[in-house]
Each structure stands twice: as structure tokens, then as C-alpha cells.
Amino acid sequence: MGASAEMRGGALAPLTVVPQHVAIIMDGNGRWARERGLPRLEGHRAGTANIRRTVEACAEFGIKVLTLYAFSTENWKRPPAEVRGLFALLGEVIDRETEELHRNGAQIRHLGSLADIPESLAARVRHAVEYTRGNSRLVVNVAFNYGGRAEIVHAVQRVIEAGIPADQVTEELLASHLYTASLPDPDLVIRTAGEMRLSNFLLWQAAYAEYWSTPTYWPDFGPEHLHAALYAYGARQRRFGSL
Ligand code: IPE
Ligand code: IPE
Ligand code: MG
By CB atoms within 10 Å of each CB, which of 84, 193, 229, 242 scores lowest? Predict the structure, then answer.
């Protein structure tokens, strides 16, 4: 994967600690578009164009798991035309990026439900997941039609369906029924566009994640912003409740 000029040139301070798992709330596409007098969907289009360079930068920095929040269970509340536009864009991203991601050793996983998703798009998501299943350089989780509460409810339903007795329900067991089963918890959650909330993202998994927010809108978020987040992460003291 091609390193950006900044990364190759060594202009960025070296990182002493690199998180294993980085999760990004890709927000601000609408505001990016509004400030340019463009329709919201053009902001989403610019946002999708930013996915490849983010994945490449993560691979360069040595991150092993990247989770991208693409569409929440609450985003259905948006006007139908915007929802349709977002789905169409996701289909385009899958068509455009899957082969390149595969060549670069990325394993694509889907976090969320495909139950209410148009079949043509659901089939593309399933294919991308299946096609890249054997890769291990970097895991790219796409949180699409994802909600943290819905995920926990879904996990509890699966535990009950499996007939697991109450006294065998542990944190490890529940975690193994989440969409992120077998993956490490996020170490760092990044949110673009300045909001200071989780918006139903990885509620269980982010219990001890470090949080970093930037006013930069998602389409403008580049490797230098990712580096700033990773650098700030390196200076955090994670205590996990101990002293
Ligand atoms: C994030 O951008 C993309 C999705 C939530 C799908 P927004 O569409 O939320 O952009 P703003 O918050 O309106 O600027
Ligand atoms: C969170 O952004 C969801 C995604 C980035 C996919 P939103 O724009 O939907 O979040 P709120 O509504 O500002 O909390
Ligand atoms: Mg938003």
C-alpha cells in the first residue's frame, strides 16, 4: 500500500505505541457538503472517497483492526432518498474497493444486520466478507445497519436460542455472540466533525476505549489527522480501573 508523502518524509513524529484496534465514527459529510453549497449526498460521496486512504494509512501505521461506522440503526430516520443514496454509495464502494482490499491482505467483516437491506446490496456485502475471509494483514469491520443496543439484544437472543443456562452467561460468553466475536476491543475511538457522543457505536466493546474527537469533517480527515489521534493515544494512561 502506498504511504502518504507525509508518512514517507518522516515529517510526522514517530509513534511509540500503536493501538491494535481503531474505530472511527465517520461524521460530518452533510456539513461538509452544506458548506460547499452541495447536496448532502455529495458529502457522502466525498466521504466514501476517503475510505481507501484511511485503510492504507492504518495498514502503514501497523493497526490490525479498523472499524468504520457507515450506517447506524438510527440513520433509517433520515429521508428515504438519503437512505437510498447511502445504500447506493456503499454498493459502489464494495464494487470499487473489494479487489484492492483483498490484494492488500484485508479481511472485510460486517457488523450489523442485513435483514432489512435490499437484497442486491446484502448479496454484495456477503460476497465481500466471503471473498476476503482468509486474509489477516488487517481486519476492516464495516458497521452498517449497526447499533450497539441492537447488537447486544441480538447476542442475548442467540444465547437464549442456544439454550445456555443463566449461570453460564459470562462477559466472555456474551462477547463471543457479538458481531465482533474473536476480535480485540477497540483501543481508540475517533469521531470526526466535533460531536462528543458515541451515537450507539460499540457500546459493549468500547467500555475502556480511549476517545478522540476532531472538528475536521470526515471527507477532509487525512493520514495527518489519524496520526494526531494515534499520537494523542500514545500519551494516554490507560488504567482499566486499577491504580
Ligand atoms: C456521517 O455524516 C455519515 C452518516 C451518518 C451516514 P452525516 O450525514 O451524519 O453528516 P452531518 O452530521 O449531517 O454533517
Ligand atoms: C453516527 O453519526 C453514525 C455514523 C457515522 C454512521 P450520526 O450523524 O448519525 O450521529 P448523531 O445523529 O449526530 O448522533
Ligand atoms: Mg452526523
Answer: 242
